[in-house]
Amino acid sequence: MSVPLVLVAACVLIDADKRVLIAQRPEGKSMAGLWEFPGGKIEDGERPEQTVIREMHEELGVVIKEACLAPFVFASHAYEEFHLLMPLFLCRRWEGIPQPREGQKTAWVRPRDLALFPDRYPMPPADIPLIPMLRDLLT
Question: Which residue of 10, 81, 130, 138 shows the fewest CB atoms closer than 10 Å?
Fold first, then answer.
């Protein structure tokens, strides 16, 4: 049985203390309550970098220049209803202070804590394999 391919792009904001920003999916959205790397669906005619820049402004009120985005890894995960393909970018420089603008909660966490305490910040299955790569990069 064929399932639709959903293309999303996400970003890991990294602060000076090597913490990463995660956001909790708000009530009413699929996978509500799970923590994720901010981002969103890639719209028609949009490049993944443009999606990240747009979504980070919409969701968190920060301005990111494309030159400050570094491609890192991608997730490819088969959910029951769709297959997710998600490039993940790293960003260490942005303008503004990240503030939740869509009813979500946010948290700055160390990747090693995401790995050591998965019950503290439960994440969607597609995001979980990305944690060890971030931990290795930032420790």
Answer: 81
Are the beta carbons of 17 and 98 closer than 8 angstroms?
no
Q: Which of these, 99, 107, 84, lies nearest to 30 by C-alpha position?
A: 84
Q: What is the Cβ-side half-sphere exposure of residue 3, based on CA atoms within 13 angstroms?
A: 11
pTM for the model stands at 0.94
Please state, in angstroms and rounded to a whole number, the distance separating the CA atoms of residues 55 and 23.
Answer: 12
Residue 54: give the domain boundaries.
Answer: 5-138
On whether the CB atoms of residues 112 and 35 are closer than 8 A, the answer is no
Residue with tokens 């890991």: 12
The alpha helices in the chain, defined as continuous H runs, are: 48-60, 111-116, 130-138
- The CATH number given to whatever domain includes residue 113 is 3.90.79.10
